[in-house]
Amino acid sequence: MADTAPPSGPAGTPRSGRPRYGARPTMKDVASRAGVGLKTVSRVVNGEPGVTPDTERRVQDAITALGFRRNDSARILRKGRTASIGLILEDLADPFYAPLNRAVEEVARDHGALLINGSSAEDADREQELALAFCARRVDGLIVIPAGHDHRYLEPEIAAGVATVFVDRPAGLIDADAVLTDNFGGAREGVAHLVAHGHRRIGFIGDQPHIHTAAERLRGYRAAMETAGLPVDGSWVSPGSTAPGRVRAEAERMLTGPDPVTALFTGNNRVTVTAVRVIAELGRPVALVGFDDFELADLLSPAVTVVAQDPARLGRTAARLLFRRLEGVEGAPRRVELPTRLVPRGSGELPPPSA
Amino acid sequence: MADTAPPSGPAGTPRSGRPRYGARPTMKDVASRAGVGLKTVSRVVNGEPGVTPDTERRVQDAITALGFRRNDSARILRKGRTASIGLILEDLADPFYAPLNRAVEEVARDHGALLINGSSAEDADREQELALAFCARRVDGLIVIPAGHDHRYLEPEIAAGVATVFVDRPAGLIDADAVLTDNFGGAREGVAHLVAHGHRRIGFIGDQPHIHTAAERLRGYRAAMETAGLPVDGSWVSPGSTAPGRVRAEAERMLTGPDPVTALFTGNNRVTVTAVRVIAELGRPVALVGFDDFELADLLSPAVTVVAQDPARLGRTAARLLFRRLEGVEGAPRRVELPTRLVPRGSGELPPPSA
DNA sequence: CTGAAAGCGCTTACAG
DNA sequence: CTGAAAGCGCTTACAG
Q1: Contact B156/A74, CB-based, under 8 Å?
Q2: Which of A16, A46, A70 is where one domain is finished?
Q3: Which residue range is the domain that position B227 belongs to?
Q4: What local confidence, expressed as pLDDT, does residue A79 receive?
Q5: How many angstroms separate the CA atoms of A333 and A175, rounded?
Q6: Chain B partners of A82 at a C-beta cutoff of 8 Å?
Q7: HTH lacI-type domain spans which residues (chains A, B) (predicted)?
Q8: Across the interface, do B117 and A117 touch by the CB < 8 Å criterion?
């Protein structure tokens, strides 16, 4: 008899209508179990009209019995769009980018898209590798916080229809949508704030100058000093790595030399935190304004005055622009610049020591 | 002549061998342009042996000319595994989970897999929706920080071969791999530390008790008190929302009542930060130990003593376990528990006010 | 209302 | 060394 076939254990059930272990039932399996055609199953799964209640029920029963779940990868292959976007940031672990990440996710979710994530680790090669891997998966769009300065490698992808928006820093050597913070204006305002509180000797410690945001902030510092008619001594300006060791050394040098600065403008949150430590160890108050807000800045004493960006808004704006492009909005690449906000908390309002 | 066909603008090039705008060249396009078979292109693209240098060059030229990039979605459909994993956490914007996220990414990268991300927003329905969406995309594996307490919805997926590891909190109503922190032991140690510094009246403010980690930490608090032979007044124990308003009210109540506690044990980083604010406003030192480390804890005054978890290790451990499962390691579900580390910084070593 | 055929862009299993 | 055929699991376009 046909039933004398060897009993099928959990690891392999050749009996028709049931998938083998580790495999998954397909629409074909559902169709044969329900005794209908493939297209009818497709109609039920996708809620398309034109199926009698009785047929629908039979299909639903088969779906439940087999534990069928539509394979969206196959669907996607046929439909063209993948309903997924890729986001490349510098470091998924960096608290500064976390709200940006979440904001992008929310917008993607509103549009029914999934989010693929990756960290460039501030390495141009890794950025490219990730971006192209995402494109190979045929993401509909790409949001990139660039690490590199040459994005020509993306030209074929963009031409092929991958919507691409750069955030936080502009693209290099290609013309593309970008959503940025007004780094120049923010830094200028922060330094002007120190000037307004009587400082004339203001130090700048920032990130490496090849990073766009760092260069812009340094430019803002210089502009504020020039506007105020203040000279800038070369020894007051220190762009470079944000490694605590270097920042610490530079802050100590500027604050304890023969003719010390009376205030510090720090170019990003990591620099600011190290500067706070140095000042605390110094034992005397030093005026400080930092670029980027950070948690607990208000709990330190003195509380730290900052030029705040809005990372969530950066992400939201970029993602919305991306989906607008995907919906067919054409036009020249856009450059959106978001404002900063000066948050006075105490450290930036300290006067210079009365000479 | 054939060349009298209407000129083809950028939006549509019917000329054979070139894709229309917005579409992408396929292996078939490459094959016909190079004058070879489809399989030969596949061999070149995948670096398989058995192609003469001359043929290979012709194929490479066609690839370059057309800007071909293999469609990994199609490849995946045929191969079975998608080389992607999904990670569901509570909130991509939460700095606590950011290092976990990055650690998972690094392990995935080591295994050539991409990372799809999502936030449950502490909502069980949204967790399920995300998990099933990831499964529909046929991720190879799933790492979940669960929001819900019933994960039976994942049983068909797990049976179908989706490797699944829970992190930070265990799965509900199913038996599955889990990587957890020793919340009980950590809390017990933190409270015992306060006891060792002379405190007998210690308050506990924690998260909602239906959250596994919160319940475990409360259990640790009670165990430490009991071990020390100290009674626990009901008014000293406050599990509930971590919203600043509630935490603030509870901290103020415990610290300013008729018979106030002399020390506070706070159940997570958000609670700790609010407690620090309340204590700062109070104007007198109060001993404090918090569960979870946080940035700048050492810069506050007094610096905050914490029971630290290692979120990156949590993520790394979970991801490694996941890939071991994907490599075929069978066996009963595992439960890994990672130790905490008490970090004395000052606030936890304050003595009770001399009565 | 229902379904057979063709095709999305690859890989697998074979055959020359 | 090379390639035609079949198939991964769906959807599209059509026909009954």
Answers
A1: no
A2: A70
A3: 183-309+341-349
A4: 86
A5: 6
A6: 73
A7: 25-79
A8: yes
